[in-house]
Design a protein that fits this description.
The protein has 168 residues and is α/β, with parallel strands linked by helices. 42% of the residues lie in helices and 18% in strands. It has a 5-stranded parallel beta sheet, sandwiched between helices. The radius of gyration is 16 Å and the shape is globular.
Amino acid sequence: MTTRIGVYPGTFDPITLGHMDIIRRGAKLVDRLVIGVTTNPSKSPMFNLDERMAMVERECASLDADIRVVSFDLLLMDFAEREGASVIVRGLRAVADFEYEYQMAGMNQQLNSRIETVFLMADVALQPIASRLVKEIAVFGGEIGKFVTPAVRDEVVARVALTGRRGG
């Protein structure tokens, strides 16, 4: 019997309730879900790679699924191939996400036609959540508890206090 492996890539800076929704649902579609934590040169992360990986591992530990958290810094399709994945799981929040993801899926299909991209719509209540906005709200002293777990909230608030990135 072949194990169906899926990859859910992202920066997870920080991991949000929206990410967790996609992870829970994506894990039902495959035998093993590999969460690929990566860096994005166009983003300046609040947390370093090791911190983000630890955060994702902690948040996924209680899920009843075969989930691995792995870092990567290569093309997504090369990473998926390395992990033995047949599916890339991507979450969609809005039309803007769809346009970007549609283009990426097309390019990825050209790179490796053996790996399919599966899009999951975020839960309606979680659709507006974006890590970038969570960080921005926190920097300006807003409450982020509706968007992340309590442990992640505490980490973000502590990081904002440590770096003095609070706005005025």
